[in-house]
Amino acid sequence: MSARIIDGKAIAAGLRAEVAAGVARLKESHGITPGLAVVLVGEDPASAVYVRNKGRQTVEAGMASFEHRLDASTSQAALLDLVRRLNDDPAVNGILVQLPLPGHIDPAAVIDTIDPAKDVDGFHVVNAGRLATGLPALVPCTPVGCVILAKQVHPDLTGLEAVVVGRSNIVGKPVAQLLLAENCTVTIAHSRTRAVADVCRRADLLVAAVGRPEMIRGGWVKPGATVIDVGINRVAAGDGTARLVGDVAFDEARQVAGAITPVPGGVGPMTIACLLRNTLEATRRQHGLEAPG
Ligand SMILES: Nc1nc(=O)c2c([nH]1)NC[C@@H]1CN(c3ccc(C(=O)N[C@@H](CCC(=O)O)C(=O)O)cc3)C=[N+]21
Description:
Elements: E1 4-5, H1 8-30, E2 35-41, H2 45-60, E3 64-70, H3 76-88, E4 94-97, H4 107-113, H5 125-132, H6 141-153, E5 161-165, H7 172-181, E6 185-189, H8 196-201, E7 205-208, E8 226-229, E9 233-236, E10 242-245, H9 250-253, E11 259-260, H10 267-286
Parallel strand pairs: 1-11, 2-3, 2-4, 5-6, 5-7, 7-8, 8-11
Antiparallel strand pairs: 9-10
Helix pairs in contact: 1-10, 6-7, 6-10
């Protein structure tokens, strides 16, 4: 058997087109242009690529993009000052501070300073708490992208055994919350889980978010299962160049799974599309407009 490959790149392009149409309507009917501010501290080359892609796709969706590149030695106080200025700037509807931050800056202090209404990453405790308690929230982008991709295969996720490998605040925990809200039976596995391969083999829906290249092997996958690979790991290829791989050993898993997301071209593009959607939604709410439909 060979799994269906879930085309995240195409699905993300469709979602971005919907967002662009929503932005155009907002401009036409209310004269409002959503604005997204992205803050990058330091020079991490991989981060710089993401920031550039986000900026380009933001503009393509008809939104304003504000980029703030700060030196790696920027103090926490200076970064918090910038975040407060962005909170107070009416042209800025969404704020993303790229993680990871340099070691001398406490990411929790930064996230805590972002206005929850502009927290398009959905990382603020207010948004995490609203998600956990079933209130309307800005929801983290990668987890939403995972659920949209899973729904391509299972339009109704009700009753599925879902196993999430990874317990980060950014992916593992929020994706588990979203799957619970979709009526899955959710297990969160992590580095201390015993017999993790056996736990994974129970999953109808397996979400890999551990950040370890190709950790999840073909033998961990239940035949016919849907596999969502959140990992984006740069590893050295045989010829010395860098190659992107997921947290799943793709060539093994695709022999067993019913459907699987590739890396690249799976969850990654969905993350940016959902960021743009969150920015549009945040803008509407800040102007007291309900999201249509
Ligand atoms: N506050 C914050 N929010 C984030 O959302 C955030 C962050 N910090 N720090 C870094 C990670 C990483 N991230 C990616 C987004 C898109 C792709 C993406 O589009 N990847 C493409 C291309 C990858 C490539 O070719 O390099 C793909 O998977 O097909 C990847 C990675 C968002 N992050």
